Amino acid sequence: MTETPEQRGFATPGSAYYPTLVAVFTGLVLISNIAATKGVAFGPLLTDGGFLVFPLTYVIGDVLSEVYGFRAARRAVVIGFCMQALAVLVLWATVHLPAAPDYANQDALAATVASITGLAVAGLAGFLVGQLVNAWVVVRIKARTKEKHLWARLLGSTVVGQLADTVVFCAIAAPIIGFGNMNSFVVYAALGWFYKTAVEAVVLPVTYRVIAYVKRHEPSYQPAE
Question: Which InterPro entries match (predicted)?
Answer without folding.
Answer: YhhQ
